[in-house]
Amino acid sequence: MYYNIGNLYAAKGDIDKAIECYKISIALEPLYHLSRINLGNMYMEKGMYKEALQEYENALKIAPDEVMPYNNMAIIYLE
């Protein structure tokens, strides 16, 4: 539920509220890798690259075949 609410806030451009929701989602469902990816995406939007990388790495520990974290990590490393 908090994952979906985070998505709504992200779509509206309210990054801080989206981050709050994704953190709650992770606390409630720590193995739901999409919350970690989206939290990383929000950190990227804020220029918080260290935090974004950490969340992408966390997501890959849960779902190593997921492509999005690798892609987003590459973007960070290229900047």
Q: How would you describe this structure to a colleague?
A:
There is one protein chain. This protein is mainly α and 79 residues long. The chain has 5 helices and no strands. α1 runs antiparallel to α2, α2 runs antiparallel to α3 (33-45) and α3 (33-45) runs antiparallel to α4 (49-62). The longest helix has 14 residues, at 15-28. The model has no long low-confidence stretch (mean pLDDT 97).
Helix-strand sequence: HHHHH
Number of helical segments?
A: 5
**Biggest beta-sheet profile:** none
User: How many β-strands, per DSSP?
Assistant: 0
The low-confidence parts are: none
Mean pLDDT: 97
State the helical fraction: over 70%
> What structural category arises from helix and sheet content?
mainly alpha
Principal-axes geometry comes out as: globular
Strand content: under 5%
Q: Radius of gyration from the CA trace?
A: 12 Å
Termini distance?
33 Å
